Amino acid sequence: MPGMTFACFRFAAALGLAAAIFATGAAGPALAGAPLSAPFPVPRSKAELPPPPPPTRALLDRARLTGVTGWLVVDIDTGAVVDAYRPGQRFVPASVAKLPTAAYALDRLGPDHRFVTRLAARGSFSGGTLQGDLVLAGGGDPEFDSDALAALIDRVARIGLTRVTGRLLADPGPWPEIPSIEPNQPADASYNPGVAGLSLNFNRVRVEWPGRGAAPVVVAHAARSRPPTAAIRVEPVAPAAAPLVAADDTQGERWLLDARSLRRPGARWLPVRQPGAYVADVARGLMENRGIAPRAVAVAPGSGVGARSLGEHRSRPLSGILARMLYHSTNVSAELVGLAAAAAEPQGAFARALAPASGVQVTARAGGTRLADNVRGVLPLSAQSLNAWAARRAGFAAGDPGFALTNHSGLSVASRLSPERTVDLLRALAGPRRAGDDPLLPGGVAQLLRTYGVDLPEGTERLDRVRIAAKTGTMTFVRGLAGYVHTPGERRLAFAVFSNDLARRDGTRRGARTWMARARTLERALLAAWIQMADAPPPKRRASGMLPAGSTADTPAKARAAAAIPAGHGAAPAAGRSVVPIRGRGAGSAASAGPRWTVVGPRMPGSTGSLAAPGTGLLDPGTATTD
C-alpha cells in the first residue's frame, strides 16, 4: 500500500538519522545526554508543602478593617494554641482594661469586701448637739449615691443629732482628688469625671430645663431622690460657638449654656470635677431639710482620721460592684476599685507612695513630687501596681511592654495590651468555681463577665454547652474583646482580639461608625470560627511502626499493616490512607520482581493528584497506576 510504504520509509529514515548522529558523536546540545525514559516527577513531601492559611485570615480580609488587628486563642487546660494572628502586637485596649482591674480587685480585696462611708464627729456630742465638726469620710465606694447619703443622714438623725456648731467637712479619702480620668477627652464627657474616695452618683450631675426660656436646674440624680446642688452651676449665655462650654472659675464648677437651648425642654449629664465639694454641698442640703444646719462646708483631706463614727453606710459586696462595673463599663468605678486594690497591696508602688504622715495619707512622693501636688501621677502610679501584679500572676516578666496599663478603666490611648499577655493572664485567672457559679465558666472574674451569643452553623450539636463571657473595649477607631469560651466539645478557651486604627483616630475620624461595625462583625465571625476550629477532630498521627506515605511493601497485607489499614479495605477513611499497586520502569526496577505496593497519604487541599515513584512521596488516594 502506497501510504504504508511512505510511512515506513519516513520511519526508517528517522531511525537512520538518529543512528548516524549517535554513531558519530555529533549530537547537538539539545540532545546531549538525553535519557532513554522519562523519570517519575518527584513531588514535595507533606512536610515541605506550606500549610494552608487558617480560615480566620479570610474573615479578616473580608472585614475590610483598616489599621491593625491581632488575636490569640488558647486552650486553658492544655495551653495549645487554637488560632493566632499577631499575638505579640501591642494595642490600645480601651475598656478591656477593666477585666484585669476587676481581677486585681478581687485578688487584693476579696469578693466580699465592702466599702464604708462614715459620718463622724470631731468634738463632743451630747444632748443632740455636736460641739465641733461633722465629717463625711469617704471610703472609696464607687456606688455611693444620693439615696445612700440621705439614708446615712437619717441614721445619724435617729440617734438624736439636731445641731452642729462647727462645719461639715468632706474627707475625700486616702488619695488626692483627680479632676478627670483622662485630660484629653471632651470637657463635657460625663464618662470622664473626677475621681476621689468620696464620690456621689458616679460623680456626675443632671442638668434639666423645662423649656420656654426657664432657667436650668442641676440635680444630684439617683434612683429615688434628686436633691439640688449649687456646687455645679449652669448659666445661660448669648448664642455661643458650642451649646455647652466649661467656664474657668476658681469658686467652683461653672458651665455656660447657649440660651437658645432653653426654648425647648432638654437635659444633659455633666461630669463633676471636684467630687468632695459636690458631695459636701448635697449633704448640707439634705441635712438642712432635716433641721440639722452646719455652719459651713469645706473639703478637708484626712479629717476623718481619728474621728468618732456616728453612722456608716456599707456598700454591697465587691463582687456585685464589679459585675455592674463590667456590664456597664463604668469608668469611675474601675478607677476607684483599682485604686483601692493598689492601696491594699503593701509592697506595691502606689501603697508605698501613700506613706501616712500624721494620719493623712496624701503626703507621699511620686517622682520627687508629693501626690497631693501631682494628681495626674496618681492613676499611672496605681496602674504600675496592677501591671506588676499581672506579671507575677501570669508568669511573664515585670515591665513587659505587652502589659502596660496607665489607669484602671482603659480610658487612655497610652495604655497597651498584647493578645499574648492578655491571654496569659486570663489562663492564670481561670480558678476554681464557687457554689452557685456557672459550671461552664472558670471561677473568679470569668463569672462576672457579660455573656454573648454567636451564630454557629445549622446542625451544630450541644448548643446548650456553648458559653462566651467577655469584656468589650470601645473608643473611636479602637476595639477590643477578651474573655472565655466553652465549646460544645467541652473545650475551655481563653481569647483576646484587638483592632486599632490610631492614624484615623488622630485624623478627621470620619467613618468611625462604619469601622466599629466592621470590627464587631469580625469579632462575632472569629468567635464562631474558633469554636469550630477547637472542636474539629485532630489530624490522626502515624502510629509507631507505620510506614510513611510513599513507602513500599512486597504484599498488600504488609502495606496495609504498615498503613494501619484493615484487610479488605482499600482505604482508611479516618486517615485518608490507602495502598495501590505500582509497577516500576526500566531494568532493575521493582517490576522485575513483580508488582510492589505503595502506601498512599491523604489528598492535599486543592490538589488534583500526583504520581510518585515508590518511597518518594504522596499519591492521590485511590489512584492505581500500572506502567
List keywords for this structure.
26% helix, 627 residues, elongated, disordered C terminus, disordered N terminus, six-stranded mixed beta sheet, alpha+beta, 26 strands, 13 helices, single chain, six-stranded antiparallel beta sheet
Summarize the structure.
The protein is an alpha+beta fold and 627 residues long. The chain is built from 13 helices and 26 strands.
Strand order of the largest sheet: 2-1-22-21-20-19
Shape: elongated
Using only C-alpha atoms, the radius of gyration works out to 37 Å
Beta strand count: 26
Instruction: Report the oligomer.
Output: single chain
Q: How can the largest sheet be summarized? A: 6 strands, antiparallel
- Report the structural category: alpha+beta
Relative helix content: 25-40%
Please mark out the parts with pLDDT under 50 across 5 or more consecutive residues, or reply none: 2-11, 17-31, 357-369, 542-552, 559-627
Mean pLDDT: 81
The DSSP helix count reads 13
Strand content: 15-25%
The rounded distance between the terminal residues' Cα atoms is: 34 Å
